[in-house]
């Protein structure tokens, strides 16, 4: 793991796999550090012949942190950070895998930097651009659990923050159940290496879009998934309590060159180990089926 320094931001990056293999860049969900893309999951992808890159988005892990409640960046900045990473690593284009908010950022990448995106894989995500009014809302149990989640009294108390992190993740589990031992282990690693967990748990939700307002052609071009050209794999569960399955179905219907893989039992989460035997081969086949020799040399947007 290393920290890449840019003019305005520091981004912690980790990678595994052969550097001559197709590059796969993993984008975590809101509030999540790279730790939720666990080393064993990344290792499995690397064993499939992929170069796997994960990183801490701003306000998570060891990347730049803003004061709690005051992010100094927009969603557009979060979408540009992967391009900074690809440039620093000398990678012209990559296969982008995004979870939840990371899937929204992946859509922005596909629209804003199409030459840098070989394929998209969107996991438990939803269409960007505001075209979601007819899609189902989060389930009532999740809404109630978030409302009743106790606040953190002392963000300097690591054990209290870990307990809070575990409690916050619990209602997002699907019908496969909640693996508290595994989630607690990830949360412990994350809390021990994150600059400010208070910032991490709030700031992503407060960042502005960074996209022009209104119905201008520029705004539409930056927020319309139907304009995404990259081959896209949509992975979505029938048990996601936050973005129910119709969100994934809508994404697959909107993006011209998209395929939907329905998963049973997964919650709103990175794929758990029970499903790696399905998800890892699906990502491998999608990536290798749309890869081209020489596509990974340094390039520009």
Explained architecture:
This protein has 301 residues and is of the alpha/beta class. It has a single domain (2-289), classed as Alpha/Beta hydrolase fold, catalytic domain (Rossmann fold), CATH 3.40.50.1820. The chain is 35% helix and 15% strand. The protein is built from ten helices and eight strands. The protein has helices at 39-47, 75-89, 101-112, 140-148, 158-169, 180-193, 197-200, 217-223, 245-254, 276-289, and strands at 2-5, 10-16, 23-27, 51-55, 94-99, 117-123, 232-237, 258-263. It has an eight-stranded mixed sheet, sandwiched between helices. Strand 1 and strand 2 form a beta hairpin. Helix 2 crosses helix 3 and helix 5 (158-169) packs across helix 6. The protein is globular, with a radius of gyration of 18 Å. 47% of the residues are buried.
């Amino acid at each position: 793991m290393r920290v890449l320094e840019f003019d305005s931001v520091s981004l912690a990056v980790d990678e595994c796999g052969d550097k001559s293999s197709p590059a796969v860049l993993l984008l975590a969900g809101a509030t999540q550090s790279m730790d939720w893309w666990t080393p064993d999951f990344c290792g499995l992808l690397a064993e499939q012949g992929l170069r796997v890159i994960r990183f801490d988005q701003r306000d998570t892990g060891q990347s730049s942190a803003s004061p709690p409640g005051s992010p100094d960046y927009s969603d557009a900045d979060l979408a540009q950070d992967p391009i900074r990473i690809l440039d620093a690593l000398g990678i012209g284009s990559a296969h982008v895998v995004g979870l939840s908010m990371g899937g929204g950022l992946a859509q922005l990448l596909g629209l804003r930097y199409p030459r840098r995106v070989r394929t998209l894989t969107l996991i438990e995500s939803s269409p960007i651009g505001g075209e979601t009014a007819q899609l189902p809302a989060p389930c009532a149990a999740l809404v109630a659990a978030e409302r009743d989640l106790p606040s953190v009294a002392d963000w300097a108390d690591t054990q209290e923050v870990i307990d809070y992190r575990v409690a916050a993740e619990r209602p997002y589990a699907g019908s496969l159940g909640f693996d508290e031992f595994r989630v607690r282990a990830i949360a412990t690693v994350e809390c021990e290496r994150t600059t400010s967990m208070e910032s991490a748990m709030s700031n992503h939700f407060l960042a502005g879009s960074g996209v022009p307002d209104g119905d201008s052609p520029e705004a539409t071009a930056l927020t319309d998934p139907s304009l995404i050209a990259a081959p896209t794999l949509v992975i979505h569960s029938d048990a996601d309590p936050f973005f129910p399955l119709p969100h994934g179905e809508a994404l697959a219907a909107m993006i011209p060159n998209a395929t939907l893989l329905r998963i049973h039992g997964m919650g709103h989460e990175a794929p758990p180990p029970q499903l790696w035997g399905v998800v890892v081969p699906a990502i491998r086949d999608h990536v290798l089926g749309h890869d081209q020799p020489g596509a990974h040399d340094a390039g520009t947007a």
